[in-house]
Write a structure and sequence with these properties.
alpha/beta, Rossmann fold, 2 domains, 20 helices, 17% strand
């Protein structure tokens, strides 16, 4: 860059333009950071004004409550749960957090408002040749929205986002469920793990993108959202401002700071296999899940997977935290062309959940870890799982196999063990109501958003025209757009929506998944049938089956074993009708001596 740098600053929420300290604090922070590397650089800062567009909003308590509830419902929101766990209600939540929820929700819901803020930013960018755009909090949403729809506006410029909600699952819904690279010269995303204002990491891989962890914890500040602290964070100074000042950033440092940038040495294939037999409650213990894991590992290794590409977690080590940590190992850093396989054998469940108004109004589908206690903190939920894969490269391959069931009110069936758990009575009470006329308890009708919304429009609003239906693993951020608006947004943003894996499940929604006893050895009936089919194909030296053909063969095998469960296959139509990517063909012995 030249000795003179023009920077456009886009402030965050909280009516920043009315704060007399905003401009001086940003100016001092940026000038000090740049002069740390090059004192000859002259920095000019301009500030975008957009608060007026939000002044007509009705920001009352109910507006904030609904906004916070919707944001919470969207998935993993950094830190916000801490406030609810130690507060008695909305009034105990810091004012800036309420402002954030209200303003972000308003911006996300109103296309007219988004259009006005986009135009304001474009008009400002046309006033002079800016070298860099610095955007905080809500300002980063306005900036990303503008630059994705108007790529020339950020071309040859550096973009710095910080204290940002761009990666927030609810907000990402505005961008049709996916965050894509920008045409910027460079994009730096500063992330503070201690920031509690609805911020999130961005799961993105691009040569011009660097996600930089900038941890700071301000004394007596529960939010840790201050813009100046981001701008002056040591890691920001060593990367962003060093580069901006004209001093090259060492490659080793860039790789260290960019926590999600793909490493060149990562393997092309990875598989994670999870099996839980020994649940703490004796009534919930299973017999075949660990055997399933070893069976699937052997089948994958027969199908050209290497032992070092397969990771296993079993029984007491398969806690919610343990599973999520290994899911990050499986999916983080996935590059185009990579293959990923997840296999889970254990219990599935549905948790009656509380909605925006603190009323039980929906069901959260989940896998049941070893430490499951009918709380979301000790479950692996549909939303968490979908959040991990929704940003994968389109031309990567991710197959998830679940030998469990998620039907509500699950019970044992004779001697055959069912892979689902029955809730304790206090959890059951959430999903019941008293029928005074019949003098009996009966089940309440609770929504399961990932199923009900898909049924309403065949999944088009979430997934476009492939019409995949929703069970575990088909979640997305809370849908606020119509199907037409969703497809229009995808076209404007130039992408296909969230990544969709291929998902193979042991049974249909209304069925149960059973265990099978092979002589004296227990397996999942579905897993055993899947392995048997794959090995039979291998012996017959046939070409690889498609996912659709494989599922049909497994269904036939289950029927032969007298099991009343029909496997479920979901995924993009173009993929499930292609051959499975790992070989079922017998490897010929080497002739080399």
């Amino acid at each position: 860059m030249s000795k003179s740098i023009n920077i456009l600053c886009v402030h965050g929420v909280g009516h920043g333009e009315a704060d007399p300290q905003m401009v001086p604090s940003w100016t001092a922070a940026i000038n000090q950071a740049v002069s740390r590397w090059n004192s000859d650089v002259q920095v000019t800062l301009d500030f975008l004004h957009y608060d007026a567009y939000f002044q007509d909003a009705e920001h009352n308590v109910l507006t904030y409550a609904e906004a916070v509830g919707r944001l919470l419902a969207s998935g993993v929101i950094n830190g916000i749960g801490d406030f609810f766990s130690r507060s008695r209600g909305l009034f105990d939540i810091p004012q800036q957090l309420r402002w954030t929820a209200g303003m972000v929700a308003q911006w996300a819901a109103e296309e007219d408002l988004r259009q006005k803020t986009r135009q304001a930013l474009l008009d400002q960018l046309n006033t002079k040749p800016y070298d860099l755009v610095c955007a905080h909090s809500l300002g980063s949403l306005i900036s990303y929205d503008t630059f994705k729809r108007n790529p020339k506006a950020i071309k040859d410029k550096v973009f710095v986002s910080f204290g940002s909600q761009i990666g927030n699952p609810f907000v990402r819904d505005v961008f049709a469920g996916r965050i894509e690279p920008l045409k910027a010269k460079a994009w730096y995303h500063l992330f503070n793990p201690h920031d509690h204002v609805l911020t999130a990491r961005i799961r993105l891989q691009a040569d011009n993108f660097s996600q930089i962890v900038t941890p700071f914890d301000i004394p007596n500040d529960v939010l840790n959202h201050d813009a100046a602290h981001y701008l002056q964070a040591p890691n920001a100074i060593d990367s962003v401002w060093r580069n901006v000042s004209g001093v090259a950033v060492p490659v080793a440092l860039t790789r260290t700071l960019s926590v999600f940038k793909a490493a060149k040495t990562k393997p092309n294939r990875r598989a994670l296999l999870i099996g839980i037999n020994d649940y703490p409650d004796p009534a919930n213990q299973l017999e075949g899940c660990v055997n399933d894991v070893f069976l699937m590992s052997s089948v994958l290794q027969e199908s050209t997977f290497k032992p070092e590409e397969i990771r296993v977690v079993l029984n007491e080590r398969a806690t919610a935290a343990g599973i999520l940590e290994r899911l990050h190992w499986l999916l983080d850093g996935t590059k185009p062309g990579d293959e990923r396989v997840l296999f889970y054998s254990g219990h599935g469940a549905q948790i009656p959940g509380y909605g925006i108004h603190e009323e039980v109004d929906h069901l959260d589908e989940c896998l049941v870890p070893y430490d499951f206690d009918w709380t979301l903190e000790h479950a692996v939920t549909d939303k968490q799982f979908s959040e991990l894969y929704s940003q994968l490269p389109y031309d990567s391959q991710f197959l998830a196999i679940f030998d469990c069931c998620h039907s509500g009110g699950m019970s044992r069936d004779g001697s055959r063990r069912v892979r689902g758990v029955s809730p304790p009575d206090d959890i059951r009470h959430r999903a019941l109501k008293w029928n005074a006329e019949l003098e009996m308890w009966e089940e309440r009708k609770l929504a399961s958003p990932n199923r009900d919304l898909a049924k309403a429009d065949n999944g088009v609003a979430f997934l476009g025209q492939n019409r995949a239906t929703y069970r575990f693993g088909r979640s997305a951020a809370l849908r606020t757009l119509t199907a037409k608006a969703y497809d229009q947004s995808r076209e404007e943003l130039g992408h296909q929506g969230p990544y969709l894996p291929v998902i193979m499940e042991a049974c249909q929604e209304s069925q149960l998944s059973y265990e099978y006893r092979h002589g004296v050895t227990s397996y999942g009936a579905y897993t055993y049938s899947l392995a048997t089919v794959l090995r039979r194909l291998r012996k017959q030296q046939q070409t690889n089956p498609t996912f659709q053909e494989l599922t049909q063969l497994v269904e036939k095998q289950l029927k032969a074993l007298k099991y009343d469960q029909i496997p479920c296959l979901l995924g993009p139509g173009a993929i499930i009708n292609q051959p499975i990517p790992w070989s079922t063909l017998k490897t010929k012995p080497s002739t080399k001596k």
